[in-house]
Every structure is written in structure tokens, then in C-alpha cells.
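Sample pair:
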Amino acid sequence: MSPPETIISGGNPGRGATGHPSVTGRARRAVRAPGRRSAHAAATAAAGSVIAVVALWLSNGGLHTVGGAGAAAITVGRLTGLVAADLLLLQVLLMARIPWLERGYGQDVLAHRHRQVGFVSFWLMAAHVGLVTIGYARQADAGIVDQAWTLLTAYPGMLLAAAALALFVAVVGLSLRAARRRLRYESWHLIHLYAYLGVGLVLPHQIWNGADFTASAGARAYWLAMYGATLATVVVFRIGVPLGRTLYHRFRVAAVVPEAPGVTSVYLAGRRLDRLPARAGHFFLWRFADGPGWSRAHPFSLSAMPGPDRLRITAKAVGDGSARLAALSPGTRVFVEGPFGAMTAVTRRQRKVLLVAAGIGITVLRALLEDLDYEPGDATLLYRIRRRQEAVFHDELGGLVRARGVRVIYAEGPRRSADSCLPEGFSDLPDGDALRRLVPDLAHHDAYLCGPPPWMEAARRALREAGVPAKRIHVERFGW
């Protein structure tokens, strides 16, 4: 009978196939992520912006600007419109690729909050439109449809605002999970970009008709500063920084290497890559100038520590972007955005680490195994695969075992199979008891996870059951 797991262990610490030296006890102590303070500051600033909007509205007589029939609806409608506009700008800033914000939260968390803020902003905007229309209809003793037509045609900027609302309806509708599952990522992303146009179309009606703009110099200064800062941030970090890095580093495809069935590594060369602020655990958005469709960006993580003249990414052919990697030719020009991501060595808190990979998720964790500081025996990799032939970087992991004393466990077997050769509790997804048997002192580890989202959720729950605090479980999701 096959053993429940295959463990590669042993070897003398030192400099081996990876070229990475063993580390000292002083170097291995836990490091607090420098982005955490930035994350807290960003959250405070976001909350402060909403408070500032409400305070400006109150100081301008927001509760007493209108009277008579429909007054309450108009008053609340104006406030919901102002808060919606503020959240709309915050939503754009969340995905503006601000480096310190990315380091503090990670792009998966930012994308989730971007989605949440977007839905709140949309419903507040819908409430603004409905309440203001109802309020003015009651004041004019007119029908809702007639009043809506009057607002559209008699007030400057309202047609542009109506076009913006139509764009937001389209973007929000296509962001619902049921709609997203039916769309290719590239199509969804292209439509999503129309939200930026909607932000620009909203501004004129706010400047020309908004009571805060027309009656308050302070409010005008605040809103113009917010719109200006948001525009500048998008231009700098979504356009300027990626273009500057691409031109400076001159990325090119150096080599394309098959790693396993359907899995390809791409080695990238460039100029002065030591000045690129990248490390293991980061990912980039890549555009390969290899023909039609090259302008579509695809997220791929580094699968090895970045070197002074080389980077490496590795992906499995599961979509159009990843499938094209195998057909790239050396010399192909590459455009990059990044680095992004928060699942790096700086988030580590404990001396010992457990890395849990499923399938192609090994790419990120294999890079982290090079970058993390640890003594022999302090790092464990649990690698979930169906068959040993599918294991990616088998030889490289063996080199890390010999060079740095990593403990590697292959959890091998088919999915949801009662007789698979897996440790007890690993017939498909892990549980806490199985993890404790494999790593008895697991509660004193940091854990890094990478794999399919449902598997990672199960692994996270298992780690919590095994006593690992949530703050020491490091996960980054790359789904859209």
C-alpha cells in the first residue's frame, strides 16, 4: 500500500542548486508588513472624506435649503447624491494601482472593496435621482415622468448625468455574478472601463446645478480637489508609472520553457531589473506584443525570486492569455504594470512557515520559498497534486530541500476519491486534524496559501481549526 504522503527531507544546509544561502537566526525574525500603517491611514482618509462631505452639506444649510411639499425628499436626495459622488471617486482610487495601498491591502482585497463601494455608490445614486425627482414633482404638483423630463431638458448638464447613470447601470448589471459568469474577462473589463467615462460625465451637473457648488466656495474647492486628485492619481499610476517602467527596463521574452503538461515558464530579460521594486509573491499585469489581442493585460505571478537581469513567470494554459505563453518567441517585446500584491515575506510574523499549494498555485509559493528567511526544518511545503507527473518544479523543490532544509509533502491523489493516496482528511480538501498531524506545532506557524479559490477557503478554515490565527494566514486571490 502506498504511504499516505511522500516527504522529501534531509540534506545539509548551505548553498545549493537555488543559489540561496542559509540564513541566521537574527535574520529570520518576524517582520511586520510596512503597508499596514498605510492601509489604516487610507481607511481613515476614506472615512474622513465621507464625514467631510456631510459636514460641508450641513454647514451650507443642507437641512434647511428647501421648504414645502417634497422638501424632505429633496433634502435627503441631495445628501445621497453627494455621498454617492464621494464614494464613486473612492471606488476609482481603490483600483488606481497606488503602490502603498496595494502593499497594505493586496489587490484582491482592494477589488472586493471596490465592488462593495461601487454597489453602495450606485444605490445611493439611484436614491438621489428618485428622491430629487419625486421632491420636485411634489413641489410643482406634476407627474414623475413629466418632472423627470423637465429636469433632463431644463437644467444644464443633466443629459450628461443621465448618460453617466446609464453607463453605471450597465457596469453594475454586468458586475453581478450571474452576468460575469457568461462574459469573457476581456469583454467584462472593457465594459467596466466605461465607468471612468461615467465619472467624468457626472461632474458637469454637479458643478452647474449642485447647491454646494453654487453657494459654497469651500465645497467647490473640496470637490474640485477630489476630482482633480482622482484624475491625477489615475493618470500617474495607471498610465505614467507602467509606461515609464516599460520604457526604462525594456522587457523582452528571453526564453520559453515547458515545465509540465500544459504548464509553461517564460523568462524575461530587461535593463536594470535590480531597480524594479519586485520580490517573490508579487504579480504583474503582462502584455506581450505578439499579435492581435496583445493589448489585453493578464495577471501572472513571479515563480522565482527576481534577479538583476531576469524575471520568471509560470502559468497553466486555462484561458486565452495563459495558453498564448507557450507560443511566445524570444525577443517579443513586453509591457508591464506592477508589481502588485501583498502576499510577500514582509507579512510574516512567526519563525516557522507552512506553505500550502494546490495545482498551479505552487508558482507563487515556490518563489516565496527562496525569499523567506528560515532555518533548516522551519519551512514546510504541502503541495496538493492529482498525479506526481503533474508536479511543477519537482527538481527545483528538491534543490531547496538539499540547499535549505525545506520539508516538502506531496498530497497526491485524484479529487474526491475515497481511495486516493492522501493523508487522512485530504481526500480532496484539508481539515484541521490532518494538518495538525502533518505539522504538530502548526499553531506557531505563519501560513501562505495559493490555489483554486474554493480550495483556499477550505484550507483557510482548516488552518483556523488547527489553531492558526487569521492574521497569520496569508492569501491572495486572482479571480475576477
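The mean pLDDT is 81.
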